[in-house]
Amino acid sequence: MNIEIRPILAAAAIAFATHSSAANVVFAPAPGEDAADALQALIDANPNRTIAIPDGVYLLSHPVSTPADPKLAVSLELADFAVLKAAPGFPARQPLVKLGGTHPANNIRTAGSVYSFSGGVLDGSGVAAGIWIESGRETRVRDVSMKNVCLGLRIKWGANNGSSDCDIRDVNIVGNRAPDSLGVLVEAHDNTFSNMRIADCRVGVRLRRGGGNRFTNVHPLWTNPGDQYDGGIGFDDGTSDNSYVCCYSDHFETGWRFRKSSGRSVMTQCIAFWYAPSPGHRHVAIKADGRFRALCSDMQIGFRGKEATNAILDAGLPGGDGFISDPRVFETLLNDPGDDFRDYLRGRVHGLLPPAPDGPLATASRIPSAADIFGVPPAVAPAAAGLPDALTGEMAPAPACPAPAPASPVPAPACPVPAPEGAGWTFVSVTNGVCDDVCAPPCGDGDLSYHFRCLYDKGGLVVETVVRDDDIATDTSPEGSIYCRSWEDDCAEVFIDGELARLDDSRKDGGRHLWHGGEFVLVANGAAQSRSSAAPDGYIRPERAFGGDLPESNWWTGESFILPGYGHAERFYIPWRSMGHESAPARIGFTISLQDDDGGGGRDHTLYWSGNPAKPHLDERAFGVVSFEQ
Q1: Which of 432, 466, 430, 431 is nearest to 447 (CA)?
Q2: pLDDT of residue 149
Q3: In angstroms, rounded to a whole number, what is the distance separating the alpha carbons of residues 382 and 374?
Q4: Are 154 and 127 within 8 A, CB to CB?
């Protein structure tokens, strides 16, 4: 069988051999030659040699095999861009390479017993497997990339009563996304696996025989079609006495599954994470078909929302002697009444986020729909100061606020400020708020003070402000604009640290953190501006936001109201996705500020709920926190 392959220039082959660390035989087949036959002939003719394969694409019509006998063994060393690719007609589900596929042996004392496959790319063309280790001891596979394979790596029953003692490191596996796609299959004892990433496979790692295997920093990632999600498993363990250190099951339906016949395994600092809610599915970090016997410590479990049913442990039978020690998880996202983890809990459950800062805490109440409250300004309770008289309808004058003496830093006495109607409002004034070090503080409550509250619905956060301001100016920001110097006018600013990162500068690292929130601004005349996940053209009018005509990118909305004789009010609606979330989180970092422009021109006063006076708009460490009632 003749297969056209990419020619390899002799000069390139010689250059690779010269620079290769150990190679002393170079594979350079002639154009049109079956690369499989040529490579197999080279292996058979060069015992105890390292065979170098330079950059290029080599089509294989059948598997190639290396001997396990130490006197005949070879190592294969591929350049980074050398590709062994399954040719048309390659036997389905067979491997491209069989290590120890001929001359089986169980020998660790003879020179040549340790051989390897390193470097390059194995392309299964959707039908072939990558590497099978069939015999021998202490075989090494390293620095290999496998693409479009039905099965990446298989280690068969070892030569030493099942022990194969293989060492696998720095291997990347991308499957063929078929329903039976599998990353790693282990059928032997005593192997080590480190620094591996697995994608496009329905099951990441499967252990079916043997035991005593150790996995360190092995990361299966779910990327298969959604109709295969049921039955997707990161680590499918049917053996015993295996250990997992810093391993990571990423968005599989089940993170770790211990089959009924499996014995005790150890899990240390492992992660089970879901990057989307997967409505209608059941997410389980650890599933034991029988009694739970694994020893699990310092595990992090990251569920995403409550649309799926979320459980840390599903134990098939009671009475196991395993434990789960000090897990890290949002307890509010645990919504499976059948979750068994508390029966095996040692220590305590730790929240994924650090404790709330020393700054203030606000609580957001849930409402049915934010759309129901838009279009109507927040109501302010009747009072004598600055509001219409209940009988005559005439406006009573706002109380005068005496200015402080020029030499005195103390603000004037507080003026009475009526509170908005409803619960949950927080009052911020010059006496309990934070002023920055750029502007003078307000002269009193009548000059600038405000109430704010937070609400939320299924889709996002609502922030409402009612501002007492005796002089409203919006001369710098054109009405309806979204590119403006909003801070020079009367405006409300909402700052969100959606991931509670608490950075000292929210705009560091090129502003990447702003994609978890940022700054959202509404001017009293309806102009908007943002430096945020939606910046700045992500602002849309409320009628569009609640009418269903939504942009594909992140967006937010809001509205402003002038309250004659009192001040102004703003209402923000910021979707969870504009904070990096799919649904309501447990908490976010948050603060709010009001800029005050008296008489036009530049701003005169600034008043924050919480912040560092030196840079209150940037230093998230001094933000407060909003907690969401569940």
Answers
A1: 430
A2: 98
A3: 22
A4: no
- Residue 156 and residue 185 in contact, taking contact as beta carbons nearer than 8 Å: no
| Whether the domain at 74-346 and the domain at 424-628 fall into the same CATH topology | no
Which of left, alpha, beta for 249 (phi over 0: left; psi -120 to 50: alpha)?
Answer: beta
**pLDDT at residue 388 in the model:** 39
pLDDT band at 553 (very low <50, low <70, confident <90, very high): confident
Average pLDDT rounded to a whole number, residues 165-193: 97
Distance of alpha carbon 490 from alpha carbon 501, whole angstroms: 29
Which one-letter amino acid corresponds to residue 60?
L
Tell which residue, 578, 613, 615, 590, has the closest CA to residue 500: 590
**Cα–Cα distance for residue pair 51/81, rounded to 1 Å:** 15
Q: What local confidence, expressed as pLDDT, does residue 382 receive?
A: 53
Is the CB of residue 247 less than 8 Å from the CB of residue 272?
no
| Spatial distance between the Cα atoms of 531 and 396, rounded to a whole number of angstroms | 39
At residue 503 the predicted structure's pLDDT band, cuts being 50, 70 and 90, is confident
- Could you tell me whether strands 95-102 and 129-133 are parallel, antiparallel, or unpaired per DSSP bridges? parallel
Cβ burial of 314 (10 Å; 0-12, 13-18, 19+) is buried
What is the spatial distance between Cα 300 and Cα 581, in angstroms, rounded to a whole number?
A: 18
Higher pLDDT, 23 or 197: 197
pLDDT of residue 353: 55
Compute the radius of gyration of the chain from its Cα atoms.
33
Coil, helix or strand for 97?
strand
Q: Is residue 197 pLDDT above 50, yes or no? A: yes
Alpha helices in 9-110 (DSSP H): 10-19, 35-45
C-alpha span between 254 and 202 (Å, rounded) = 11
496, β-bridge pairs:
518, 590
pTM (2 decimals)? 0.59
Amino acid letter, residue 310: N
Helix, coil or strand: residue 19: helix
Length of the chain, in residues: 630
Domain segments of the chain as ranges: 74-346, 424-628
Are 84 and 57 a contacting pair, CB within 8 Å? no
Query: Which is more confident, 244 or 406?
Result: 244
* Cβ-count burial 146-171 (b if 16+ within 10 Å, e if not): bbbbbbbbbbbbbbbebbbbbebbeb
**179 touches 154 (CB < 8 A):** no
* Closest residue by Cα to residue 243 from 211, 265, 219: 265
Q: Which fold has domain 424-628?
A: Immunoglobulin-like (2.60.40)
Q: Average pLDDT, stretch 609-617?
A: 91
Distance CA 543, CA 551 (A): 13
Concatenated DSSP letters of 189-244:
BS-EEEEEEEES-SEEEEEEE-B--EEEEEEEB--S-GGG-TT-EEEEE-SBS-EE
Residue 11's closest CA among 24, 23, 26, 22? 26
Assigned token pair, 422: 């409803």
CATH number of 74-346: 2.160.20
